[in-house]
Structure formats: structure tokens, C-alpha cells
């Protein structure tokens, strides 16, 4: 669908979008024995075969993103974080420890692209390469809280 959009478009997304992994790649209904449960709570808990599945999921996503073309009207900040909604708060874009791509924060990348200072089109290397990521860790819904 993005290929048909004529207006300028800037993609900000995690290549390992935690919501997509939890709800599309490995939803509970497709994992009745719970093999993915620990992995979906914290990417550091994933076994190599699960990381491989997520790497393949990332490659499918990247092939779709690259399919929109390399025009400067298309910007992108695709990091390798296990996260979702990296745009909901402006603070996430400018915090001292915000995720970086090419030594650039989200806010600077978007601003440089929007104001035609730099056609920012960066895709991060594969997990776990980016030490600036804040990978999401979810609470275990089955844990007993006393």
C-alpha cells in the first residue's frame, strides 16, 4: 500500500516490533503450549530458533519497506529494537539515551528529512547489534503478585 502513497512519507519502526511479534508472529492462539511465552516477554529469553524466526520476520518487513523506493520523499528510521510505539512521546525522540541510527536520534532524523537537510534512510543491522536500544520487557501475566 505504501508504494501507492504520493505524499512524502517517513517510516519509524522497530524491525522487531514487540506488538507484531506478540500478536501476529506468535500469538497465544498459535502457541498453545507456550513455547514463545518467555521470548515474547523479553527478547533476551529467546532461543536461537526463535531469534531465527524473528530475523526472517524482520527480512520480510525490510523487503516491504525497501519496495517503496529510494526517493528522498521517503525517509526511514528502522532500528533493531524490540519495541513498539517509538513515536508516541516527543521525549523518546530527544532523550539523551534515545535509540540511535548512524549516531542520529529519531527527532534529528525526522527533522533533517522534513526540512530537506538530509534524506535520512537508515536501516539498522540485525538484533542484537544496537546497544542504544531499550528493548521492551513485559510483565509475566501468569506470575503471582503478593
From TrEMBL:
It is found in: Secreted, Cell wall. InterPro entries: PAE/NOTUM. It is an enzyme of class 3 (hydrolase). Belongs to the pectinacetylesterase family. GO terms for cellular component: plant-type cell wall. One of its GO terms (biological process) is cell wall organization. Pfam families: PAE. Its main location: secreted. One of its GO terms (molecular function) is pectin acetylesterase activity. Keywords: Cell wall, Cell wall biogenesis/degradation, Hydrolase, Secreted. This is Pectin acetylesterase. The keyword Secreted applies. The keyword Lipoprotein does not apply. Hydrolyzes acetyl esters in homogalacturonan regions of pectin. In type I primary cell wall, galacturonic acid residues of pectin can be acetylated at the O-2 and O-3 positions. Decreasing the degree of acetylation of pectin gels in vitro alters their physical properties.
